[in-house]
Amino acid sequence: MAREYGNYVNGEWVDSESGETFEVVNPASTDEVVARFQNSTTGDVETAIEAAVGTQDHWADTPGPERGALLNRAGQALDARSEEATEALVREEGKTWAEAAGEVQRAVDIFAYYGQKARDLGGVVKSPSGRRTELYTKREPLGTVSIITPWNYPIAIPAWKLAPALAAGNTVVAKPASEAPNSTRIIFECLDEAGLPDGVANYVTGPGSEVGAPLAGHDGIDGVSFTGSTAVGTTVARAAATDLKRVQCEMGGKNPTVVMPSADVEEAVKILGVGAFGTTGQSCTAASRAIVHEQVYDEFVEAMVEYADAIEVGSGLENPDVGPHVSQGEVESTLEYVDHGRDEGATLETGGERLTDGEYADGYYVRPAVFSDVDNDMRIAQEEIFGPVLSVIEASDFEDALELANDVEYGLSASIVTQDLTEADEFLDGIEAGVAKVNEKTTGLELHVPFGGYKQSSTNTYREQGDAGLDFFTSTKTVYRNY
Ligand code: NAD
Q: What is the mean pLDDT of residues 408-434?
């Protein structure tokens, strides 16, 4: 019998008023139920919001260094449980062991980083125009915030929202995605173990319609930090805007890597191979378009196919190159895009079929796919697939490549592989993306620099991570003090 977990509300692990639970299965072996979680209601969300609002003044009054010390202890508690958290992440989301261990370490580091930042929440002092006056700014917590997160980084993303929110003195109600609530639960256990006061951070599981929607629109919530698809993010931003809540939505991507003739093609293939197929292509920053100069196009396609064919797909617990998709829905969506690609006239060079034999029989496995002869107006070149599918598009020159790279509605991450410095600089200037890289994969982020997208990838109001991650969770008060 699988374990059942409660919501974490007002410092207690409690059942939903619905009396119902839902199950999470292992995507590598779907007959294994990982655990059961509360199928919460809007009433449960209201109880959690009430708890968070009730304790907000107290948490805001807690000195920053004390809040920071608590975050440090939570990070240490997670570090001590890193193996358990890694396994939980592999079993519910399907990541490989190495990917999951890296993500858990990222969360540990994020708690340490914002634990330190909680000491540094100063303002600025300026020269006033009048005499006997002080003119300065103070940073205050926004209030009670909601955090709505996706399944693909279920430890790192909640951590990079929770840690700055708590560091800045906000109270929080968090909703994880229903595909992967277990890893997020471990973070809350660590916060509890670290001595978090009751009600300061709350965790409520359940469907987007019942749990997510009230977290976006409730009048007790002062700010909504959402990460997920552009479709849902748009709904969240609209709901939050009805009473002018602060809102931050970080959403989908259709990330290009441009390959120029001066590139070492083998190196470019490695960059794209990891960028496109790592995390099973289920990263918002995954490379899904290789835009390749005509001079190296054929060589690139041949080497990319060889790379894809050598990828070992398997259960994350065995630490292969690529794990399963997270769910049946995600597998179906990837397979549909493979069909669209074929129907639209692209050439499926390799992969794209569901793996069903032997060890693959009970999992959501698809062999990594490479399409060539892709036109930029095809659906596989325009829409986020969120699976291990790479579209290779031919460019006639640098200007053409840059234009193709920008000719999508998304603008999250982008890279170029080149030995030509001028090309690299022109790319960095011209690319419409929140993250721009040279000779690197589109995935992979440093935690101490801002992260966010352009265009439909983000509301583009605030950035996450680094110092910028605190901006969303604070308000600036300007003080004129005459004496
Ligand atoms: P999703 O949009 O389906 O769900 C995200 C969260 O929103 C989940 O917790 C879900 O339950 C909740 N939700 C669903 N309906 C809701 C509603 N009506 N109101 C409020 N909340 C609701 O996304 P997903 O499938 O979990 O994640 C994949 C998506 O996330 C991809 O598009 C990916 O690009 C994006 N993503 C973006 C970033 C980034 O930083 N830009 C990072 C990771 C993932």
A: 98
